[in-house]
Structure formats: C-alpha cells, structure tokens
Amino acid sequence: MVPGRRVGVARRLLPVDRVLLGYLAIVTVVAIARAPSRPELWWLLPAHALFLVLVVLLRSKPLGPFGRALGEIYPLLLLVGLYAEIGILNSGGVRVHDALVQRWEMALFGAQVSTEWWRSAPSRFWSTVLHAAYFCYYLIVTVPAVVFLSRGRIEEARHFVLVVMITFVSCYLVFLFFPVAGPYYVFAHPAAWFIDNGPARLVYATLAAGSSYGAAFPSSHVAGAVAATVAAWRGSRRLGLALVIPTLLLTLGVVYCQMHYGVDALAGGALGSILGKGALGTGKGEREDW
After folding, report:
1. Fewer CB in 10 Å around end: N or C, the chain?
2. DSSP structure class, residue 258
C-alpha cells in the first residue's frame, strides 16, 4: 500500500513541484554543509520536511475548489519563505562579491550608477513613482495566476507559476553561491528628502523587516517581473501588455532608488527574458482574450 501510494503521488506531481523539490534538495545540502559552524541552520531541515508533507497532502487525494486553487498557486505563497532562507544561509560572515560587480558597473556605465543617478537627476516625483513601482513587484508575480485561475484557465495558470518559480529559484541559487550585498547594504541610504514619501517609506519598512543579505545579483525583482510579463503574455496579450509599463518602471526603479546595481538589473532582465521566452515555446502559443 505505501509503495503504491508513493508512486501515485509521484505521478501527480506537477513540473513546478519537481522544480521546488529539486531546489530544496540543493538548499538542504548547502544548509548541512554550513551547519557545523552555524547550528541554527539545522532548523531549515524540518522546514523543508514540512514542505514535503505539504506537497504530499496537495497531490495525494481529491481536494475541494479551495484546495485545488491552493495546489496551483502555493509555490507563489512560498516565495517569501524561500527568499528569507537566503538571508539565513548567507548570514554569519559570508564572502560577498560586491567589489567585482562594482568593477563590472564601472566598465559598463563609467560610474556607480545606483548611487549617482538619483544625485545627478534628483526628483521627488520620480522617487515616489519608482518606489511605488518597486513595490508593485508583488502584484506582477502573483496577480496573473489568480486571474487565469478565476477564469478557469488552468493550463495558463500552471505555465505562469512554473515560469515564475523557475526564474526565482535560478536567482536564489546564484545568491547562495555568488552572494552580492548590493547598494542597499554597501552605500549610505539616499538623502532624507528623497525617501520622504509614502511608497519609499513602505519599501524601506519592508526591506528592514525582510531583506536577505547577498541577494542582489541578479535582481530577482527584475528577473521575476520580466518572466511574469512574458508568461502572462502567453495566456493573454492584454494582460501581458498591462504588465509592461510596471515592469519597465520597476527595472528603472531598482537602480534609481539605489536598491540594485545597474548590472543587477541588466542581468535580471536578461535572465527573465531568456527563461520567459524559453518557457514560452513549451506551450500552445499566445491566446487573445478578454
């Protein structure tokens, strides 16, 4: 009975389940390797075991409407926890590579654009708009899945979630093995007048409560937003187009608001485009609707 049940659950796993299980297997190995000098990392192992239990419960038996919806979008709900793990794993004196990334920045832009842009083009208006765009990231990477599910378009919802999660776990793996602190940690924060607006205060409060050290390169905000836009376009051109401007503003905002190096944003945009377009070819093509 037990072996048969295990086979049944394995057959019902979605591609996104397998991606997350593979990612957590790698993170578990990293946690075990780093735990001898940092015993607090052992607590990540039971957390990963609970994730495995969650997947088994979601895939092992029939669920009602709420359970089925949860089974489709639960990976997006785990993003906060997966991101927080990066900060835990990278704390305790991990070596960061900001000096190297800053050299790339100088080679490409001739300046540390993240700390010089807002100074050379100071604007309360753009600070407000671009900090707001930075926070819109949470909507960009979640709302399309909810929209597709609400319209009964399971294939599009699954594709969207899969593309977004592949993009994020790719970024998170880079953070683990090539940590970069980023301008938020390396440079002094912008002048008080620059961040004296509602969206900026909200962003800084969020970062103070849950920013992960070493998670700057590539920008997962940009990568996730770009991949989400491409994946949303596959299911609905209108929905994809609606995300273009917020994604563009977010990409500019992470640099102008001194959250990421310019190189971070470029790398994130490239990664999101590659993964989004690569996954685009796995579906049945774009659909025009509503």
Report:
1. N
2. T
CA torsion angle for 159, 265, 258, 135 (degrees, to 10)?
-10
CB 44 within 8 A of CB 88: yes
Which helix H or strand E contains 71, and what residues bound it? Answer: helix 65-77
Q: How far apart are CA 138 and CA 134, in angstroms?
A: 9
Spatial distance between the Cα atoms of 113 and 263, rounded to a whole number of angstroms: 9
3-state SS, residue 181:
coil
Q: Taking CA 235 as the corner, what is the angle to CA 233 and CA 238, rounded to the nearest 5 degrees?
A: 55
Under-50 pLDDT residues of the chain: 1-2, 4, 282-285
Structure confidence at residue 38 (pLDDT): 87
Cβ atoms of 172 and 181 within 8 Å: the answer is: no
CB 126 within 8 A of CB 195: no
**Cβ(33)–Cβ(177) below 8 Å:** no
Compute the CA torsion angle 27, 31, 34, 36 (nearest 10 deg): -160
DSSP state, residue 241: H
Residues 6+ apart with CB under 8 A from 10: none
**Number of other CB atoms surrounding residue 140 within 10 Å:** 23
Structure tokens that stand for 258 in this block: 């001194």
Q: Residues 85, 61: contact at Cβ < 8 Å?
A: no
Contact 217, 261 (CB under 8 A): yes
Asked if residue 160 lies in contact with residue 235, where contact means CB atoms within 8 angstroms, the answer is: yes
Q: How far apart (Å, rounded) are the C-alpha atoms in residues 103 and 106?
A: 5
Measured distance CA(27)–CA(124) in Å, rounded: 41
